[in-house]
Write a structure and sequence with these properties.
484 residues; 20 helices; four-stranded antiparallel sheet; globular; two-stranded antiparallel ribbon
């Protein structure tokens, strides 16, 4: 069955429903959600139930839209205070780390292709192109697993990995595009290559910064009467930022990530509604992207590249990624060896390499179908080997710590523009013995109020004479002087 106007909604709704239901089981057992979605797409694809989807250009367009939203959302979640202590490490890993991984892996692929029986014949440039497409890491799968295990990381590793994974896609994209241009044009000078990199970085960074600031100004001043329109307005800014930057020869992925950081670290109206909308859109487009890629591949074609792809995947996991990470982190002597090893292990391949692998196919680069199948195979290998062992590795290296609680158990939130702190506390017998068992006896600090009291499943509006019991949970609002 092929996708057309009559059945696309039916097939799409079934795929979405099955993916979400199946991912619930995978989430419980620590299986990367991305892997589940890919496998569902493959199951419904040409070698499975027979859904036909073979247009790499359409998959690339879907991926472009999805990555724009995912990177912008990742930028919104990146807080300056968290990444400032690990800024240098994250930037080195997302630039030179990607470049070194590409060089090491490309050299290995070219060396392996010279052996008989490998069914792999690639020039050095084509081998580097294959390596470049899969040189970036995937953050979504890593942190989905960590959250499912209720785990956090010591030594600022979490913000470092978030910064790296959110900002290394532009570098991999630039390497992929430059190598495609080099192969299809018959060669490029070193000056041309360097100028292309500089233009993409400078234009991408500048447009992301300026358009992100513009988005904040417009959102705060436009005064829309319908609050539901604010997230849609921001969505238009995301696609506008990507396309305008791309038209100006800049890196659109870098631009949307930086624009997301500008918006996420500024005070904006209706932040709660915008964040909820962006979370939903991110998940929707991730699922659509993963399913599309699963449908696009022909699993039987991967059997022909299984041996070289396995060797390349093992080399990336065991040698290329660790050596690149260790070289990039050499200047940071305070970082212990356990942290370096964990960062090396979290070189998880995801949807981005598969999306980038469609670019050679669309550009009709020689051996492009082989590149796509190898990248897809290695992505699955990485998700199975690394993705299912992330939490185990964190525990083995003694880097795991309990996940900090966020929000409150009352489900109440206060807009960011209101300078307050909202939290809940559970009363104990000792607290009541010291302060008394009525609110009027507790002598709360000035500027602090009790909004609600929860006793079991009952909610009560507090007053001064309310008798408090051990185990009661109080929702407290106070002035947040740190924001002033």
């Amino acid at each position: 069955m092929t996708f057309d106007a009559e059945n696309i909604l039916l097939a799409g709704s079934v795929l979405l429903f099955v993916s979400i239901v199946v991912s619930k089981t995978g989430y419980r057992f620590g299986i990367p959600t991305l892997l589940v979605f890919l496998l569902v797409g493959m199951f419904f694809g040409s070698d499975g139930l027979g859904l036909q989807f073979h247009d790499a250009a359409e998959a690339q367009f879907i991926g472009m839209m999805a990555l724009s939203i995912i990177l912008f959302s990742g930028g919104m979640d990146t807080k300056y205070a968290d990444i400032r202590p690990v800024m240098a490490q994250g930037i080195l890993l997302s630039t030179f780390g990607v470049l070194l991984t590409t060089l090491f892996t490309g050299a290995f692929i070219h060396w392996v292709s010279g052996f008989s029986g490998m069914k792999l014949t690639m020039s050095l440039m084509t081998a580097l192109l294959l390596a470049a497409t899969m040189s970036s890491t995937d953050s979504a799968s890593v942190f989905n697993i960590l959250r499912s295990q209720s785990m956090n990381l010591k030594h600022n590793l979490r913000p470092m990995l978030e910064l790296e994974s959110g900002s290394n896609d532009p570098m991999a994209y630039m390497l992929t595009i430059v190598l495609i241009q080099f192969i299809t044009s018959g060669g490029m000078s070193a000056g041309h290559i360097l100028s292309s990199f500089l233009i993409q970085f400078i234009v991408g960074g500048a447009s992301g910064f300026l358009l992100g600031k513009l988005a904040v100004v417009i959102i705060n001043r436009i005064d829309l009467k319908n609050q539901s329109l604010y997230p849609i307005l921001l969505l238009s800014f995301i696609f506008f930022t990507f396309t305008v930057t791309d038209l100006c020869k800049g890196n659109g992925y870098l631009a949307v990530y930086i624009a997301g950081m500008m918006v996420g670290n500024a005070r904006i109206v209706n932040r709660k509604e915008i964040s909820t909308f962006m979370d939903g859109m991110t998940w929707l487009f991730q699922i659509i992207m993963f399913l599309s890629l699963g449908l696009l591949v022909n699993p039987h074609e991967m059997l022909g590249v299984a041996i070289p792809a396995t060797l390349i995947g093992i080399f990336m996991i065991v040698i290329a990624r660790p050596v690149s990470v260790l070289l990039c982190l050499l200047p940071f002597r305070k970082m212990n060896i356990h942290s370096r090893l964990f960062v090396s292990w979290v070189g998880l391949r995801g949807a981005v390499p598969i999306i980038f692998a469609t670019y050679p196919v669309v550009a009709h680069v020689p051996e492009s179908n082989q590149i796509f199948n190898i990248v897809f195979f290695i992505t699955i290998l990485s998700l199975v080997v690394q993705g299912t062992t992330i939490s185990w590795m964190a525990k083995l290296l003694h880097l795991d710590t309990p996940l900090e609680k966020t929000g409150n158990d009352f489900g109440v939130e206060i807009p960011d523009e209101i300078n307050t702190d909202l939290r809940d506390i559970v009363l104990t017998e000792e607290m009541l013995a010291q302060k008394g068992n009525r609110l009027m006896d507790m002598k709360l600090p000035q500027g602090t109020l009790v909004m609600l009291v929860k006793r079991g499943n009952e909610f009560m509006i507090p007053n001064g004479s309310l008798q408090l019991n051990p185990g009661d949970k109080l929702l407290i609002i106070s002035e947040n002087k740190s924001k002033g």
